[in-house]
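Please produce the structure of this protein holding NAP.
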Amino acid sequence: MTSSGSDNPAPATVAVVGAGGVGGFFAARAAARADVTVCVRTPFDRLVVHSPDGDLTPAVRITTEPASVGPVDWVLLATKAQQTAAARPWLDALVGPGTVVVVLQNGVRHTERVSPPVPADQVLPAVVYINAEPVRPGEIVHRNYGYAIVPAGDRADQLAAILPGELVRPRADFAVQAWTKLVVNAAVNSVTALTGQRIDVLRRDDVGALALGLMRECVAVARADGVPIDDDLPEFTLRRMRSQPAGAGTSMLYDRLAGRPLEHEALIGTVVRIGAEHGVPTPVCAALTALLAAISDAAPGGGAPGGGA
Ligand SMILES: NC(=O)c1ccc[n+]([C@@H]2O[C@H](COP(=O)([O-])OP(=O)(O)OC[C@H]3O[C@@H](n4cnc5c(N)ncnc54)[C@H](OP(=O)(O)O)[C@@H]3O)[C@@H](O)[C@H]2O)c1
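Below is the modeled complex.
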């Protein structure tokens, strides 16, 4: 861990777990100010991020071995949400009493995903806006945006000191931000992944009506959970999605097309779960979650046993 109190303190130590679109981008940007280790499952020799303003080949250490790392100042957890449990050996090795774990994943209730083993007061949830994807292990194409919304406070300010400032956007209304993104993701990711079509599919009257119903359930659950989401978010979102250029996709669509397990639990299943806690009915979300779970479990690396009638 970094010592403090010196005139020339050592740079902060940062471990990025998962070097996909999000992790690769944040690792490359953090390397300008911090001592960065990239913790990966699929090995590669060099991290390269192709950005609109040029290519980055940051000086980072790359490891596949949790036994080769120890506690750091910051962990940036950037796996997909459904990969969090499998990343636990990294958290066990990287988290000490002074470590902060930034959960750079979509959804809400980020702390529950990592706690335990991480003490809840050492977790900083984050909602990421970026368009980036890995084209091969260690090689990321970053197309646009690139920032994390985090709860305002000291931790946010400390994170902004190890990342270029524009990458960290502290918000006092973090829960509203996270739920607002979840409402959009729940509808758009689910509908595109289930239909196997790009977001243009939302221009259909029938699919648009389904998405509206789904988003209204999400808003009702968010409000029951104490988060004041705008009532007109579903209508606003549908108009916005219908005005996007044709051909835009979503991460869950890409995962489905590639035969990978899906992030459905974090992006829509969580709405059903939290709805049940508050007695808010979510029949549309529940139906779509069941179908997405069936698709995900049948993917190579998914969870379902084979066979059956
Ligand atoms: N990409 C975007 O544009 C974007 C935008 C906004 C929000 N998000 C959200 O950000 C989060 C991260 O998404 P992403 O797009 O960066 O995902 P991704 O490109 O699929 O990257 C996830 C990375 O985690 C790695 N990983 C999985 N399990 C691991 C383990 N046990 N140990 C080490 N590495 C492991 C994967 O390695 P392998 O190569 O071995 O599979 C992969 O490189 C998600 O919640 C997503 O919804 C993404």
